[in-house]
Design a protein that fits this description.
The protein has 13 helices and no strands.
């Protein structure tokens, strides 16, 4: 049935909302994850980004409807296959965009500005920037970075420069992995599939492999340095007087956060394996949910960070 709620919900790409959890990064590493007031504000910011990002996805599908019909996988999107009309999609995008921008104003002036910047940047990407090689990758990565920055202004905290460099490197790594997978997938399809995204013709496998190596390495090194340089005194320790002061002092000097390097290294290697062996990675959020080892590594990382930051 055309324009059914189910098809409209699919149009919003709810799987993509996992990217918006990046707004919780500053709260998580600030040691205030269980501060109810801040958690509520960041959760509101998360919902705003879910709405504004869905508006962008709908606009992108409207603009690319003819190209999507030629794509082996995107042709199944609601607008491309006729399950949602363009008129209905425009209405949905307008409601989401106006509503999310209006709501962002009440979260805070700085958050409102970041929301506007994110919307304009992603709109420019959908309309023009995705057709420019290298710029398309940088724009995709900027979306992740703005989410983290939004979380900072909501909580009025600042994450470590090394952690921010990790976010930048990881964002570029995921964006490049997306392009690498697109080329591999389309190369195995009959017909001139690269016409569905002209910028892909400007990337070679070897070039993207070099890019992936650069940003996989920089992600690992930046995160490793973050865990080593993070001041243990800045973390929240629940001692309750059970550990003698001299033993506790020695204990706290250890770089316990470095334990989390293990799941991070595994996650990077697993993601690369899925790109090269299974030709996956075009949709990082779909890969995360479909690949149990990768999902497990992320869950282990989150649990370790919470334990090491809040309970040790």
């Amino acid at each position: 049935m055309k324009n059914s709620l189910r098809n409209i919900f699919r149009l919003l790409r709810p799987r993509q909302w996992i990217k918006n959890f990046a707004v919780f990064a500053a709260l998580l590493f600030s040691g205030q994850l269980f501060n109810i007031d801040l958690l509520q504000k960041v959760s509101e910011g998360f919902l705003v980004f879910c709405a504004i990002s869905s508006a962008i996805y709908v606009i992108n599908d409207i603009l690319d409807v003819e190209k999507d019909k030629l794509h082996p996988f995107k042709r199944y999107r609601p607008i491309a296959n006729g399950q949602v009309t363009v008129k209905a999609a425009i209405t949905v995008a307008t409601i989401l965009a106006v509503g999310s921008i209006f709501a962002s104003y009440f979260i805070g002036p700085a958050f409102f500005v970041i929301t506007i910047v994110y919307f304009v940047l992603q709109l420019a990407y959908s309309a023009y920037l995705k057709h420019i090689e290298i710029v398309d990758i940088l724009t995709l990565a900027a979306g992740y970075i703005l989410r983290v920055f939004a979380g900072e202004v909501v909580t009025d905290t600042h994450i470590s420069a090394w952690l921010f460099l990790t976010v930048i490197s990881l964002s570029l790594f995921l964006a490049i992995g997306k392009r690498r997978s697109e080329i591999t997938l389309l190369a195995h399809q009959p017909g001139p599939q690269l016409a569905t995204r002209k910028t892909l013709s400007h990337y070679t496998d070897k070039l993207l492999d070099v890019y992936l190596s650069i940003f996989a390495t920089s992600t690992f090194i930046s995160y490793a340095l973050f865990t080593f340089l993070e001041d243990p005194a800045g973390l929240q320790f629940a001692n309750f007087g059970l550990i003698p002061a001299d033993i506790l002092g020695t204990y706290l000097q250890r770089k316990w956060l470095m334990i989390t390097i293990i799941p991070v290294a595994y996650g990077l290697m697993r993601y690369l394996q899925r790109i090269y062996e299974k030709h996956e990675g075009e949709s990082p959020e779909r890969l995360l949910f479909s690949d149990r080892p990768l999902l497990t590594s992320v869950i282990i990382w989150v649990i370790l960070v919470i334990i090491l930051t809040y309970t040790i």
